[in-house]
Amino acid sequence: MRAVWQRVKEARVTVDNNVVGAIQQGALVFLGIEAGDTDKDLEYIVDKCVNIRLFEDENGRFNYSLIDIKGQILLVSQFTLLGDCRKGRRPSFSRAMAPEEAKKMYEKAAEKISQYGIDCQKGVFQAHMQVSLINDGPVTVLLDSRKIF
């Protein structure tokens, strides 16, 4: 499971000109679910997303997490994070989990984030979405449950 975690001042997802999810201060998280991912992968990514310390304290050091600042998460499913671009010019997405299974994992991720007391807004699974954000910093990190990076 992979995630791109971005610290934001605000973010929103629009589908068919309708805002389906919006947050203020917090993190925009793009989530890619890989074939073979388990609850263990899900727990790792969710724990990192809510506990990673990428918000500054009074000294400007990254000492606060989303939990500490009572921030929000906008969770957006993005299978293209699993794209393999090493050969040719067209990425292979064969490592992405099948949509039916991936949707269940995506919904479970949002539920688990909420269990931490974080307001978790979502995009629409498999929809064509427009994502708008004001990146704060910018601060962006890559997370991988298999610790590839």
In short:
This protein is α/β, with parallel strands linked by helices and 149 residues long. Helix content is 23%, strand content 38%. It contains three helices and eight strands; from the N terminus they run βββαββαβαββ.
What does this entry look like structurally?
- This protein is 23% helix and 38% strand.
- It has a single domain (2-144), classed as D-tyrosyl-tRNA(Tyr) deacylase (D-tyrosyl-trna(Tyr) Deacylase, Chain: A).
- α1 (39-51) packs across α3 (99-115).
- The mean pLDDT is 97.
- The chain has 149 residues and is α/β, with parallel strands linked by helices.
Q: Structural class, please?
A: alpha/beta
What is the terminal separation in angstroms?
Answer: 12 Å
CATH architecture: 3-Layer(bba) Sandwich
Number of strands: 8
**Low-pLDDT stretches:** none
Give the strand content. Answer: 35-45%
Helix fraction?
A: 10-25%
Q: Biggest sheet, in brief?
A: 6 strands, mixed
Q: CATH superfamily, called what?
A: D-tyrosyl-tRNA(Tyr) deacylase
What is the N-to-C succession of helices and strands?
EEEHEEHEHEE
Q: Provide the CATH topology.
A: D-tyrosyl-trna(Tyr) Deacylase, Chain: A
Radius of gyration computed on alpha carbons? 15 Å
Number of structurally distinct domains: 1
SS element count, helices: 3
Name of the level-1 CATH class: Alpha Beta
Provide mean pLDDT, rounded: 97
What overall geometry do the principal axes of the alpha carbons give? globular
